[in-house]
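Issue: copy button drops trailing tokens. Both records pasted manually instead:
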Amino acid sequence: MRLWKDNIFFILVEPREPGNIGACARAIKNMGFKNLELINPAPFLTPEAKRMACNASDLLEKATVWTQLNNALKDKNLVIGTTRRVGKRRGLILPLKESVEKIVAASQKNKVAILFGREDKGLNNKEVEECGLLIIIPSDPLLPSLNLAQSVLLVAYELGVKTYNLPYPSLVKHEELENLYSHINSVLKLLEYIPKGNRDIEKRIMRNLKHLIGRGGLTEWEMRMIHGICSQIEKRLRISNIE
């Protein structure tokens, strides 16, 4: 039987410090998790990284390495990012403690990706757009940015000490949502809801839709329903144009 912790994936985006990567592996294993994925990392199987990983060198050696974030997210059902910055472009942001129940519940039947950004500048705007939800770890405003390994440990701890038995539906994969977003985009253009040639408004609308849908994910039935609505709109518009 697959445990819910096996469905949590800690994904580090372009980490630069081998020692940090090793410390993250240790933090993950300390709290009973095992999935570490790295996006375009610096060389990390170094003596320093293994020393910081301590007895979690096995996680370090088995870490999945990707060159592109979108490839890592294809088979994930829910994507959550970590941030210290807030703003309208960043969608819904919850304090860590308030997000734990949702993450644990979702992971009963779904693969959940938790993204951690670069040591010096975190996740960029494009990466944030892939996230349905952002979580923030409250800290002192005089020095709000935490070390990467500290952030991973705090998230893993909050998740690891909680035990829930909450119902949560199976969700479609991130890759399937991308196809849905393309379908919605084409329909909105046909309806002229997205002004022709206005890329700024188009990006803003699609970013907000991604945050809205990605926040809780979609079941297979919900996704088919939205595809069906879009297809029916396309059909009616074609008939209207013929008439």
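Record 2 (pasted manually too):
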Amino acid sequence: MSEIVKDEGVVLRTYDFLETSMIVSLFTRRRGKIRLIAKGARRKGFPGACLRLGTIGEFVYYLKDTRKLQLLKEVDCRDGVFTEDANFEALCILQAGLEIIDRLTEEGGEDEENFDLLKGFIRNLAFAREPWAMFFAFEIGFLRNYGLYPSSSYCARCGVELKGNVFVESSVAAFLCEKCAGKSAFPLKEDSFEVLRRMESGSIDSKAFETIRTMTIGEPERKEIGRMLHRVFQRHMERYRLPGSLKMLGGVS
């Protein structure tokens, strides 16, 4: 017997199904990642805007644990819809955040930390002066939720306090001082390191996103920080792949 469930969710992906329906991949507060069938979603009159990628809403669905696909009953997307009016860069970065959640989180089970992180990212992205700063803060928050973000206060090898130019060792995805950096390490220059420290200060919550959305990042800093975070994800998360939408923006050198 099915149970009627109401939960807050974010649309991660959609697929056409049969002639008039869609399959919706949803990230929810109470049950993590789930998949729903939205019957008639491609018919005229269905609130299709509620199933756009990145939409935040209240979803009511029929849940049956023995089914892989649940059945959508209704959706209310009055809160936090990220419209398609944003520029191309912001839309690609939105897609990248959704890809990370879709690929790296598990199905089933409560995941409030990552849900709140994703919700704050989406709500602030459309208003960000620099969309990349929002994305990097999102990535830092995601890694922190799993205890995988490296300390940027002290060298991972000798323990000296890090200042000025620092280095990132690809093999261990950690910050090193110049003295400890090996041949495989790449530099994170002082300006990039300062921007990174500003983004990572405190917890990545809704207030932090509101502050970060006023930041600006130069092209050299963006590439260095993007490369560093890419290496941390590669080192610690086996299922990680560079989001396809970022390849169109040249986000990682």
